[in-house]
Amino acid sequence: MSKLISLPEAAGLVRDGQMIALGGNSLSRTPSAFARELVRQGRRGLTLIKTAGAYEIDLLCAAGAVAEVRSGYIGYENLYGMAPSYRRGVESGEIRVVEHACYSVIAGLRASAYGLPSQPVSGFDGSDTPALSGFLQVEDPYTGKSVYMIPKIRPDWAVIHVQHADAAGNARIDGGPFEDVLISRASEGVILTAERIAPTKFFEDKPERTNIPGFMVDAVVHLPGGAAPASCYPLYDTDEGAVAAFLEASTSTDASPESLRDHLRDWEERDHRTAEARDYRQTEKTE
Amino acid sequence: MTLETESEIQAARTAADQMAVCLARELHEGERVFHGVNSPLPMVAIFLAKKLHAPGSVLIEVAGSVDPRPDRLPFSTNDPALCQGAAAIFSNADAYDLFARGGIDLMYLGGAQIDKAGRVNMSYIGEPSAPKVRLPGGGGGSVVMEQARRIVIWRVVHDRRTFVEKVDFVTQSGNLTRVVTPLAVMEMREGGLELKSVHPGISVEEVTGRTGFPFDLRGEIPETAPPAKDELVALAEIDPDGVRYSEFAALRRAPR
User: Fold this and answer.
1) Has residue A285 been placed in a domain?
2) Rounded Cα–Cα distance for residues B155 and B137 (Å)
3) What are the structural domain ranges in chain B?
4) Which residues of chain A lie closer than 8 angstroms to B108, CB-CB?
5) Cβ distance A147 to A121 under 8 Å?
6) Which one of B119, B123, B143 has the shortest CB-CB distance to A99?
7) Taking the domain B6-252, which CATH number applies?
8) ipTM associated with this complex
9) For A65-100, what is each residue's pLDDT tens digit?
10) Structure pTM?
């Protein structure tokens, strides 16, 4: 049974107010096209989960799609500095932040993946973060050692951009997997966007290289270039000009709905090339 | 946008080289070291140390690999291009677990605000409930600063907005040994951060004038050892694209 659908159909699975864990890290293997489609469809009130994020978080913030962010780091690193729309949203009180370390995001996701209500983490003693975010300190019952308990983070969706997927949802990630295997286990549902739709034999030949088994996946979108303007190893690098153009568009005027629309229009043709996915389904049948 | 003068550009280049060398000297042979996102100077410093005095140190980096040998250093320190030549992938979660087990000797961290007690703010300027500035957040720092054996902080801006009496919010603290800036090296002692050395051509007065907390100035403050010839040669070899310069505003738009 094929799970291949178009990008608009896949983004349509996400409802207003849901919690999404986004794959990749910073400007690497970011589900950028998926985020753009959520904005095109006018999604609102989302809670975003990511250890370290940049463009796609900032874009969703710029569009007013975000109610809450739980993250260790949101910014463009030193090339472009802070994420201006995220920053503006938090400073205006429009976006709620649950202050985290990357490791406590991981702990919350692990609680969900392990079927537990919370997960202890070490560290944090010299930090104001637990008090601010309401992470409770408890004593380990065996040793009396104090640990912080991070409540379960169970996203409605994990959205992950991968290099290889098949129509059944088996996925292989080349290069660093970041937290993508974990978010696939922690989330209620999984949506993949993939550079390439491979025949299932590709996965059967090396099952130990399959990061996400198809049974966990709800939808697959064939989306070459779907991480751009972020990079997708080893296929393409970060498009620094495009990142800079987006930042200019999203900061040049205060609300900038027009420039944001222009940005989305610029990418629309590329994002909607998913017609190829349908062509693929037909070729697969005749193979 | 101001056009930086030739002398400002040269000063920033000198400071970047000095900082890279100071950071490299903090990594000892055989140690395990980690660098995070947004860490060009530490990344360059680690490769420099591995080339010179710490060839047996083990680099675990945030893009997810162990001891990579990339053809060229990327400008983003979590660019997967960095993983090239690595024999093993080691995901972020794996790395944080290793920190939690006490398995990392040294990590380099940044900081938007740093105070005398070595506490670091990467989160909010002003009240967290109604912040004047929402900063990017501490990344892994707020747990790993307590877990690494040693923490070295680097910051390319040395001013009173950065080095403050008391941080607005403690994102992280603990295990700090050194702070490296374009002006000086600070050292964590019992009473807090003190001046260890001042870089060549910088006066103690300039450092104190640009630091928002006091130093104990009894006794002589030595000059930081300038980059040695072999350090400069190795720097040029491992970082021909000038990744180490990318953190300096004066150099970001200058020809590299």
Assistant:
1) no
2) 16
3) 6-252
4) none
5) yes
6) B123
7) 3.40.1080.10
8) 0.90
9) 999 999 999 999 877 789 999 999 999 999 999 999
10) 0.93
